[in-house]
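Subgroup meeting minutes
Present: P.N., E.W., G.H.
Scribe: E.W.

1. P.N. recapped why we're keeping a running log of single-chain structure predictions: easier to compare across weeks, and new members can see raw inputs and outputs side by side.
2. G.H. added today's entry (145 aa).
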Amino acid sequence: MLKKGNGLVHTRQSKFKVIRQLIKAEPKITIQRVCRLLELHVSSYYYTPEIRPEDEAIKKRMAKIFEESFHSYGKRRLAFDLKKESERFFRNLKTEYLNGLSFINHQSVVAAVERYIRFYNYKRLNSVIDYLTPVQKRQELLKVA
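Output recorded in log:
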């Protein structure tokens, strides 16, 4: 069968291109048969992804990281950088807010974390995103998209 790396078909999009070319060249061949030969599920041929604004914002952030790295990032390094940003949030939560506090029960911890998340998202200015709050930066990105 046709597999990645054999020089014939590499990506889903190139498989779709092959399917379209085969259907034009051989009208008697069904899409189902060609998909089966390419080891591609028929429903994926007809599938069109839903594009959400938040996905576009993440894609732009990934592209920015990629551009800043002079195109030297692989999948693992990109995932590491995106994970690093979320870890920074938890570090800030611990050092700025939770250190020195003591809690009576689980509900008081949850309430304290929820208060900090609201503060972090709506009031705390972040130097990494040009001294905007995360909500302001997200709104800015959605306007661009």
